[in-house]
Amino acid sequence: MKIIPHGYEYTIFVHETEEGGFIADIPSLPGCMSQRETLEETIAFAKEATDIYLQALLKRKKLL
Q1: Alpha-carbon distance 20 to 53, whole Å?
Q2: Which domains can be identified in the chain, with CATH numbers?
Q3: 47 Ramachandran zone, left/alpha/beta (phi>0; psi -120 to 50)
Q4: Cβ atoms 29, 50 nearer than 8 A
């Protein structure tokens, strides 16, 4: 699946956990992940996590 925050396209991988629920991983953004009960929540929170991650990078670089 692809998500496009801030005009950039990122691939996310979603895995179902053994305990139930899902984990989303965005490999090109180390440590950027989401874990929720439903697939829809997991994807929504992965988009939000990506947005927050990118905002933090931009602030660090003083680009925002």
Answers
A1: 26
A2: 2-60 (3.30.160.250)
A3: alpha
A4: yes
Q: Any bridge partners for residue 3, and if so which?
A: 10
Q: What is the pLDDT along the chain (64 residues), one digit of tens a residue?
A: 655 555 778 899 999 999 999 999 999 999 999 999 999 999 999 999 998 998 888 888 765 4
* Nearest Cα residue to 26 out of 52, 47, 57, 8: 47
Considering the entire predicted model, what is its pTM? 0.77
Neighbours of 54 (CB within 10 A): 17
Single-letter code of the amino acid located at 6: H
